[in-house]
Input
Amino acid sequence: MQRFPVSWMRRVLRRELGTLPVPGELDRDGRVPETGAYRFAAGARPVLDSLVVTLYGRTRAEMLMGFPAAPFVLPLATDDVARFLDYGNMRPDHKIRLSRAGQGAEAEWRISPAAQHDGLASGDREGYRLTFSLPEHLESWISEHEKHRTSRIRKVKQRFLSDIVIYRMEGDSLQTFQLQYEPGELDRRRHNRG
Output
């Protein structure tokens, strides 16, 4: 029985990612004199190459941390942090819209600037989209009873997500963005009726 060539795989990845401390540990085909590594390399190399491409593609990804008026922190994901920064640098304090898709543990919340929805921003280039998930116990409470779901979502938006602050270090300076939830016209009508 042959062992899985972990050392070989580690060295190939480190060479491709530029983290190999000693140049020349591998020959130009990425092989080392290890039992089984030559046969393994033929099948593993395309997978490792794909992994390296994926990792390099994610090097510009950045996680933003949102601090709402709640006892938790929101890890905010985005596919294009530059769009958020472009918008946020022009409007560090701005109104946002919140939406929720999915149910229970699979629910995903989305943040986008309110101006984009009101037609105040010129084109989609100025907008952004951040996504996050709420803590599991809060999502369970929202989804607990079908008839209360809409009112509970509204309560969460108004009590916990009405003001989200994002801090980000840019070199030696601290950037601060304040996102304020503003209910849409449909939300206001529902609230006034209920």
Summary: The chain has two domains: 6-57, 64-193. The chain has a mean pLDDT of 78. The longest strand covers residues 93-101. The radius of gyration is 24 Å.
